[in-house]
Amino acid sequence: MHTVEVKKTRKVKKTTKRKESDHGSEVVITEMEQTNEFNDKGGEYTKAMSKDWHTTHFCCWQCDESLTGQRYVLRDDHPYCIKCYENVFANTCESCNKIIGIDSKDLSYKDKHWHEACFLCNKCRISLVDKQFGSKADRIYCGNCYDMQFASRCDGCGEIFRAGGLRRQRKTVGDLSYKDKHWHEACFLCNKCRISLVDKQFGSKADRIYCGNCYDMQFASRCDGCGEIFRADTLASVQTVGNDRIKKARDNNEEIAVLSMFLPMQSRQEENNQFRCALGYACKLGNAREATPGTKKMEYKTRQWHEKCFCCCVCKTPIGTKSFIPREQEIYCAGCYEEKYATRCVKCNKIITSGGVTYKNEPWHRECFTCTHCSTSLAGQRFTSRDDKPYCADCFGELFAKRCTACTKPITGIGGTRFISFEDRHWHNDCFICALCKTSLVGRGFITDGADIICPECAKQKLI
């Protein structure tokens, strides 16, 4: 039988736990003094981590230095000497850029770390330990400095939303924001009537907010028909009327036509689906043929109407999806516009819809623009007039033209024809010849011989 001689020395074990902010693991810092035991073979062993170790085997996981009698840090069940742990795992202070050792308190915020003594306001340098603070552009500030430099101000009362009391403040008076503006709940009021706008619809104009009624009274558009405003709470949809809905008139000297441009059913349906919401309020609308609550707003250029007010100014019939014609700030249906303004033929007084002609700034149907005497169409033909009445060339010549003394045919002047007159007689240029020798007398002297005209040479011969 063997006997075991055990010699024990004083053993002191000091353990501290702290949480690693970057890994979320528990780090055990164990401080040990000398711990030696002797067995019957004269060997030594160390008791640590609830295990027995040969003294030469209880070493730093990183550098293999013996940890017997030394302080060490346990991480992931592996022991490290203080130096290796700080070199490998310790955080660097954001302020002084030095390692935060295991004997220092490590304060962290958003993956940044500070020594306790370095956790200071970037502006006034007071300690922020156990105090509320704000962060801006990776820098930290005490509540007062943050408020003075960065805190939002209430657009109602002008006071700042203090970081120190912000969380409590939101519970009691609220921090309401709209388009980068902020209000206390008690300050979120209509700029006109001062009623609270909390949980209510409101409108904004020139950086000011208004309740629905006040916004409508001051800024809402009015119907060009009845003059009433378009109230946001009764408006169902807005339809913009395009130029393709306008019935146009065309006049280019010889042709006068009123064109009807009715939309096909598919185009109307697509256009009616293009609704936008008034005052920015949310509004969804389905097929235009389905019944929708509220009032529909019709828009054309800069003008607006209630759907029921978008009517012909003459017959008062609603325009709806039909074509219309704007004239001098009035809206006309096609029928009333044509009746009142459409171009009419001078002869029959009926509306010219296509194929018209203009003569002396007066419009005619092609079929109405005829010779006054023979009724032959003059469209595209040469013609002249007498007493403001049109005649074809033949009729005008027969009725009104001078007649050639030689050939008795009318002298019309068509084609630039020249003629010669003497006393009460007239000749075509080609017919103004000597009655004896047939020589042209145009530009020469001549002698009358009764009803005839003769050249001077023939006159001499006749006298001999």
From TrEMBL:
Organism whose genome encodes this protein: Lutzomyia longipalpis
Biased amino acid composition, Basic residues: 8-17
Protein name in the entry: Putative adaptor protein enigma
PROSITE patterns: LIM_DOMAIN_1, LIM_DOMAIN_2
Pfam families in the record: LIM, LIM_FHL2-3_N
Keyword Nucleus in annotation: yes
Main location: nucleus
Segments forming domain LIM zinc-binding: 91-152, 153-221, 343-402, 405-464
GO cellular component terms attached to this protein's record: nucleus; Z disc
Signal peptide: none
Subcellular location field: Nucleus
Region annotation Disordered: where it falls in the sequence: 1-26
GO MF annotation list: transcription coregulator activity; zinc ion binding
InterPro entries on file: LIM_FHL1/2/3/5_N, Znf_LIM
Alphabetized UniProt keyword annotations: LIM domain, Metal-binding, Nucleus, Repeat, Zinc, Zinc-finger
